[in-house]
Amino acid sequence: MSEFSYLSAPKSSRDRLGIYRFWYDVYHEEMKRKITDLDHSKKIIYDYFEPESDIFVIKSNNKVIGSVRLSTRSHFFKTPYAPMLGNISQFDFYFLSKVIIQKEYRKTG
């Protein structure tokens, strides 16, 4: 039986490499998504929200199997995605992204 652990990831991009590789594996290798934030030489995804976002991960047997990333309103408006929100810019919010579960753990409850 797998042992699961939940944790908030460290802030430094160096300490987050395992998570960035997990994202790459799921988005690029599995889903074949064509996104611009890939670093193929390192096999990672690293974008405008890193490393300032908060990432929470689920691990099984010390391997990342899931993640969710939260970015604050102030950080969101420093990215090229800001114009997408238009009028809601006056409200506080968190931007939720990278909600990912490893394929073999999906639909398991």
Walkthrough of the structure:
By secondary structure, this protein is α+β, with helices and mostly antiparallel strands. It is 17% helix and 31% strand. It has a four-stranded antiparallel β-sheet. A two-stranded antiparallel ribbon has the order 2-3. Strand 2 (38-39) and strand 3 form a beta hairpin. The mean pLDDT is 84.
Task: List the topology elements.
Elements: E1 4-8, H1 17-30, E2 38-39, E3 44-45, E4 54-60, E5 63-72, H2 73-76, E6 94-101
Antiparallel strand pairs: 1-4, 2-3, 4-5, 5-6
Number of strands: 6
Helix count from the secondary structure assignment: 2
Shape: globular
* Structural class category: alpha+beta
* Gap from first CA to last CA: 15 Å
What labels describe this entry?
109 residues; alpha+beta; four-stranded antiparallel beta sheet; two-stranded antiparallel sheet; 2 helices; 6 strands; 17% helix
Question: What is the gist of this entry?
Answer:
The chain has 109 residues and is of the alpha+beta class. It has two helices and six strands, in the order E-H-E-E-E-E-H-E. A four-stranded antiparallel sheet has the order 1-4-5-6. It has a two-stranded antiparallel sheet with strand order 2-3.
